Amino acid sequence: WGRRGERVRVFALARTRHHSHAHRAHVQAAHSFEPPYTHRTATMTEATKRSVQCFGRKRNATAVAHVKAGKGLIKVNGTPIDLVEPQILRYKVYEPLLLLGAQRFAQVDVRVRVSGGGHVSQIYAIRQAIAKGIVAYYQKYVDEQSKTEVRDLLLQYDRTLLVADPRRCEPKKFGGPGARARYQKSYR
Predict the structure, then answer these.
(1) pLDDT digits 0-9 by tens, 151-160
(2) What are phi and psi of 57, to 5 degrees?
């Protein structure tokens, strides 16, 4: 015996011996293995399968675009793209559509979710997400040649449509009112 572990195990066994057969059967039933659920999985349609997910970023704003086979719907946070605010920057969101033409967006639905950042950075994140989403969709489900065509069109117009802008706000340091500016000093 010697070790306490063994003794405890013996006592535990002694205690279980006194349980009734009915109780033991009940415990066994509770701990018995059951096969995993065998529910039917819904068959996915071809349109459901054809989808890509892309993100766009600008400063703290992140936009995620779901591009899937459809009939030309484009929505941002559940509202049509025509109602994007601020109105002055609405054409920035239209840029991918105007560059590539409506016929390229006729067979797809684009749904964008955007969060974080301010109004302006959200606009830039949305346009980047839409542009990257279309390129990814063309690469995956259309041919490589048309994908290259689309990509070159976008890059030729504005590189930030496909490449994220890495600039960030530089932190303020002590000894001055900002990141680089220092407080004035005078000798007299």
Answers:
(1) 999 999 988 9
(2) -135, 145
